[in-house]
Design goal:
Layout: H1 3-26, H2 34-45, H3 48-58, H4 62-85, H5 89-109, H6 118-135, H7 143-170, H8 173-179, E1 222-227, E2 233-236, H9 237-242, E3 246-253, E4 264-273, H10 274-280, E5 289-294, E6 299-303, H11 304-307, E7 314-319, E8 322-323, E9 333-335, E10 349-355, E11 378-383, E12 389-390, E13 393-402, E14 408-415, E15 421-422, E16 424-425, E17 435-443, E18 446-456, E19 478-484
Parallel strand pairs: 1-10, 12-19
Antiparallel strand pairs: 1-2, 3-4, 4-7, 5-6, 5-10, 7-8, 7-9, 11-13, 13-17, 14-15, 14-18, 16-17, 18-19
Helix pairs in contact: 1-4, 1-6, 1-7, 2-4, 2-5, 4-5, 5-6
Length: about 475
């Protein structure tokens, strides 16, 4: 058997094994699939600086990129196993076994693992080992036989693709569950929202560590509220729908945002107010933080004092008039205005536990991020775009500014090294949303820089000093360059 045929056999066997493992996971627990489990383990082990680089450079493509890299590594190992295994049969057995054990170990390392999560990886590895052994069983010679081996490999790869396609079809259940939800009207609809203020659901940013969107059966889902409380509570989705709901426009910010970055958006959220719910359960003395847990294992901690200070923290079930999109936390997420998402907005919520800071460090805090995460005063130039080429004359410079829970008092714009000039602020519905601003600039020919800064209602001016997002959010004045002709 020629070396290339061994490579083809290794790739075909691995492709079929991985596809069957992922398909098996799709009908049990998608997070138990080997690619997803290994990807999650890689994310957990990745240094913060590397994570920030990935978010900055790849944006929402970071997850497909990671899965692609994992797939290439598996393919390379499979090719080597097939090439070596044609001469050393022990390798043909050991290679798939090691890959299966790696997938099973990664599945068991996940925060929300179940013992049966090892089954997909081990089953896929066993199948890959058997198939590879059969493909390498004979030692033919001649081009015609090698071609037959190649066709066998191609057939197995085709079968793998079919299995992966079936896995994609199996993922339609959560979408159908979401479509069946009919949201009730809010008991407290909140303030009117000016046109153009909201971000559409399809354009709303997504930054999280979940490599696959959790698939949640509404009939099985419930939320457990426990810990340092007078009594424990467990509620279903139907229970939440029956409670008095509030609807509020709230701007959300990702702490990974660089100055001027895109990871923020404003939506109208519908949900159950959290503070009255917690108070009704009797918060015990000494309770300092609420640890929210996701069905896929993420933990997010929010200070109890923050949730009780009058802001509209909620268990959100709706976004811009629709049930939560799958990728934004369906069926229920926690939402805390004025706090970066990593410290107040847990998606795919499964439980809330009242505890102390000493007793538990949530996921991001254990990796060095700040436990207290109020959103910093900031502003951004959205128009014109950086490096735009403009015509001389009156140019409208526009953007947004934010200081959730404090509100924006003023926004100023500076052209080149000139004086700061006040911008016009457009109406905003509350201190929990960003403020749109605009400034009329009489542009003259040549290269120019445009800078913006905001002042919140406490009188604090947006920090000029540049700081990276880690550990508590970026600072600095957003400045862009344009050319006027």
């Amino acid at each position: 058997m020629r070396a290339w045929a061994g490579v083809a056999a290794g790739l075909a066997a691995a492709s079929l094994g991985v596809a069957v493992a992922e398909l098996l996971a799709a009908v049990t627990r998608p997070a138990a699939g080997p690619l997803i489990a290994v990807g999650g383990a890689v994310i957990d082990a990745t240094p913060t600086a590397v994570k920030e680089f990935a978010v900055r450079e790849l944006g929402t493509n970071d997850k497909p990129f990671l899965l692609g890299v994992i797939g290439l590594v598996v393919a390379a190992l499979a090719a080597v196993t097939g090439a070596v295994g044609r001469r050393r049969r022990l390798v043909a057995v050991a290679g798939p076994a090691l890959l299966g054990l790696a997938g099973a170990g990664a599945a068991l390392s996940r925060p929300a693992f179940q013992p049966y999560d090892v089954v997909p990886s081990l089953t896929g590895a066993a199948l890959a080992g058997v198939v590879l052994w059969l493909l390498l069983r004979s030692r033919p010679s001649g081009v015609r036989v090698d071609r037959r081996v190649f066709l066998q490999a191609a057939a197995l790869v085709a079968a793998s693709g079919g299995a992966v396609a079936l896995r994609g079809l199996a993922g339609g259940a959560p979408g159908r569950a979401r479509e069946s939800v009919r949201l009730p009207a809010a008991a407290d609809p909140g303030p009117p929202v000016p046109a153009g203020l909201l971000t559409s659901n399809k354009d709303f940013y997504r930054v999280d560590t979940a490599l696959t969107v959790p698939r949640i059966d509404l009939g099985d889902w419930s939320l457990r509220v426990h810990g340092m409380l007078g009594r424990e509570l467990r509620v279903t989705f139907e229970d939440l729908l029956a409670m008095p709901l509030i609807e509020r426009p709230v701007t959300m910010n990702c702490v990974s945002n660089e100055v001027g970055g895109p990871y923020m958006g404003t939506a109208k959220w519908l949900g159950v107010p959290l503070a009255p719910l917690l108070r009704s359960l009797g918060i015990r003395a000494g309770a300092e933080q609420v640890v929210a847990r996701s069905v896929e294992g993420m933990t997010i901690g929010t200070p109890v004092a923050t949730l009780l200070d009058g802001r509209d923290a909620m268990l959100a079930i709706g976004m811009n008039g629709e049930p939560l999109p799958l990728e934004h936390g369906f069926p229920v997420r926690m939402l805390t205005p004025g706090v970066y998402g990593y410290a107040g907005s847990c998606k795919w919520l499964s439980s809330l536990e009242l505890t102390t800071f000493d007793q538990f460090d949530p996921y991001w805090v254990s990796r060095g991020w700040a436990a207290q995460a109020p959103v910093k005063t900031g502003s951004r130039v959205d128009r014109p775009r950086p490096f735009a080429r403009l015509d001389a004359g009156v140019v409208t410079v526009a953007g947004v500014a934010w200081a959730q829970r404090r509100g924006i008092e003023a926004v100023e714009v500076r052209i080149d090294d000139g004086e700061w000039a006040p911008a016009e602020l457009l109406p905003a519905p509350s201190v929990d949303t960003w403020v749109q601003w605009r400034y009329s600039w009489r542009a003259t020919a040549g290269p120019h820089s445009i800078a913006v800064r905001a002042t919140d209602r406490t009188g604090a001016v947006q920090a000029q000093e540049r700081a990276t997002p880690f550990p508590s959010g970026a600072t600095g004045w957003h400045t862009i360059s344009v050319t006027v002709s």
